[in-house]
Amino acid sequence: MKRTVVSLAVLAGLALSLTGCSDATKPAAASPTTTTTEPAVTPSGALGGYQPVSDVAQHARMSLDVCEINRLLDARPVDFAGVAAVYRHGRFSDESEGVKRTLGKFAGESRQSEDTLGRYERYLSAGWLNAFIGDAIEGVGAFAGASEAVRREAVRIGVRDQIMVAWALHELDAAIEKAGKGSFTKKSGAPHNWDEVWAYYHGEKPECSPFATAQRSEVEFGVGTLITRRLQLFSKDGLKALVGKNALAARTARDQIVRDITITYVQSAILAASKIDAALAQGKADEARVAQAEGLAYYRVIEPLIAKANTTSAKAVAGVFDLATKPAVGSAAKVAAAFSTTYGPLGIAPADVGELGGAGSAAEAPTADDAEAPDDEAEDGE
Q: What are the extents of the domains in the chain?
């Protein structure tokens, strides 16, 4: 009989096959935590000098919906039915295949658990965005019996400034939250949400975005391009911090952006209040009423932030723009005085706000073609 000789190596291999692979022979891919490869992403094009690191092209197209609503608002008579259709069903921005991203959907969603917008919801009540804009479109609630001109300006500012700024604030907090959890991938982590901030704030068509409001206001108050320049600079700084996985630096940039957004709407509210005074001085009660509605629409963009700094002052400004009251002489002085008490807590210097009618004028306000100009100055500051 032949004797079969089995080597020790073969026996060892047989034993491993029966008891399972040893750590030494396990394939490296068995541990998913060892990979550092990010999902592939093709960034969308630059937006006003800001270069995203992710794809936010469709998000930026929400400004096209705002442009379309502006076109419908400029019709005589106003096509409020058409406005409602774009507001509720969307037009130009694809959220997913066959699904449009809509202003109305965002305006109607609860943000109770969020940092910044949670504060807004607690102060202005749930559904605060949709209630204002939806009521203005339909001519009900605070806008029952309001003139077409009043409703038109309330919708125009409500859509462009209230919704789009709220959307930007939402994405700022989402980026900071993801950074806190260590989610830094460019495709869907904190940098992507940060890109969305500028996509909503500046958009594909900056003339129909909050960026245009900031451009106009900073010129009206004689501060040149101070606010838009800083907003671009801090947006770039925040993105750089998140790509570098520096959550603390990103949070600092977020706070600076919120401050400069606040300045824009302090300026806008004071400007609206001055329009009330000018219209009343000329005996134009209807124009004063439109200016009051403008002031209310602008003020709501920052009202909870003002209330956090000084509740009494916040209520004083709200009283000036309350549509349940008649526009009153001295509105600009009252609004400016109330805001001034909040500057310290908000980290705002009077020079940041400037003075209405200061160096510069409405005639010098930048046009849509000038939308990229502040970025050159921002680069100089880096």
A: 48-381
